[in-house]
Amino acid sequence: MKNKLKNELLLGFSEVDITPEYNVQTIGFGREDNLSKGVLHKLFAQISIWQLGEEMCCIVAIDHIGFMYSDANVLRDKIGSRLGIRREKVMLCFSHTHSAPNISLETEYLYFLHQQVLIGVCEAKKTLAPVKAAWGVTEADIGINRRNPSGVLDKRINILKITDAQTGKLRLLLLRVTAHANVLREDNYMISSDFIGVTRNLLQEHYGCNVMLTQGASGNVKPRFEYSLEALDKMSLTILEAVAPCVESLNPEDVRSLSMVSQKEIFYADVPSLERAKEISDEAMLVNHIDGSAWLEEVARLHKQNIRQQSTEVEIQYFKLNNGCLCGVPCEIMCELAVDVVKACNSDLVAFGGYTNGCDGYLPSAQEYDKGGFEVLHSYLIYYIYHGRVMPLNRDTADKLVKLVVDGLKNII
Question: Which residues are CB-contacts of 375 (< 8 A; sequence separation ≥ 6)?
Fold first, then answer.
């Protein structure tokens, strides 16, 4: 039996509640008052453990806007320690809901989240059992390019269907979708998993199995339906209607290959001149009513220290199973990057996304970089304290990153 299991893919799964039990400071909206006022939808962390022979890796889907990369690595190390694997074998996928706690301010909540996830890791490990798998892809009209309504979109929904190896019973559906999880907007003060959680619940009820959703390249993709509870239902129903025919057509097979690997690259962001910084700040106030005074002070501080360039380590992580692959980076990448990767690889089964192991700022395409605006410039006047730099990564970063991803995919066994 042991020899047979060495040639079979094993899956372990668990889900833990990470909903705060008290009102917390939230993150996701540029409001003066960010204190939550109750719970609309519970938040969850889902842990999936994958093993084929000596290869073991873990994917964790977390209802949160996204940790800083350094904070995510702390949790990855803890999970890896429990499983006896390296950090690079642990992938955190953040839903990017804008209605979740601010872990930088809510340290007690962060400790609670860590403990719950680690409990879930132990529970998931207990459920390891042989499974079969199949990848599929469909399309759904759930997003709008918010910088250009007629512009590029990645409408794909990538689907990984997992069934019990003995009974054929559906055990897990892992989906990758592309749309910002902010159907609920600034007027919502309730904790919520947004459309990700509502969709997850609907699919779990429909299929009677566990369902995980991960985010794609939605940095410039807003949800097609917004601002109401009805919009949440429309998003989830649209996804179900798109997914159902594809799920039905997929026939899971034995898994021949499984790997999770990472590559890291340093990218740079130039610090603007004081004159340019003042122009950006004035524009942010005029267009988005953002006060850039603190940001201007930080730019001035950098100049006084003769710092003209800041750097960021970007980890590209790949989860490859048979002929399909989930890969991502700890940034809010724009949808053009995912589309470019698919074109270069000539495979719809490559799902490139953001919010993977963190969320350290927007990463625009070169064309979008030139347009400026909130995602490229103005957001940094608010969130520079989290991203560790005052500007987006330089204009050529997106093209370099796409090439790195494509080259990396070619090298995965």
Answer: 147, 219, 220, 332, 334, 362, 364, 368
| Contacting residues for 349 by C-beta, under 8 A, at least 6 apart | 135, 137, 158, 323, 324, 325
pLDDT of residue 412: 79
The C-alpha atoms of residue 368 and residue 147 are separated, in whole angstroms, by 8
- How crowded is the C-beta side of 195, counted as CA atoms within 13 Å? 30
Instruction: Find where tokens 């309504």 sit.
Output: 149
Radius of gyration of the chain (CA): 21
pLDDT tens for each residue of 260-311: 999 999 999 999 999 999 999 999 999 999 999 999 999 999 999 999 999 9
Model confidence, pTM: 0.95
State yes or no: pLDDT of 5 exceeds 70. Answer: no
Per-residue model confidence as pLDDT tens digits over 374-389 = 999 999 999 999 899 9
Measured CA to CA, the distance from residue 356 to residue 78 in angstroms comes to 17
CA distance 260 to 262: 7
For 158, list phi and psi in degrees, rounded to 5. -85, 135
Spatial CB neighbours of 187, under 8 Å, sequence gap ≥ 6: none
Band of pLDDT at residue 31, cut at 50, 70 and 90: confident
Residue written as token pair 């995602």: 375
Within 8 A by CB and 6+ apart from 22, the residues are none
Please state, in angstroms and rounded to a whole number, the distance separating the CA atoms of residues 391 and 381.
9
- pLDDT-derived band at 3 (thresholds 50, 70, 90) equals very low
Segment 107-153, tens digit of pLDDT = 999 999 999 999 999 999 999 999 999 999 999 999 999 999 999 99
**Residue 252 carries which side chain, given as an amino acid letter?**
P
Question: What order do you get walking across the sheet with 258-270 strand by strand?
Answer: 258-270, 309-321, 324-328, 350-353
Tokens describing residue 274: 């004081």
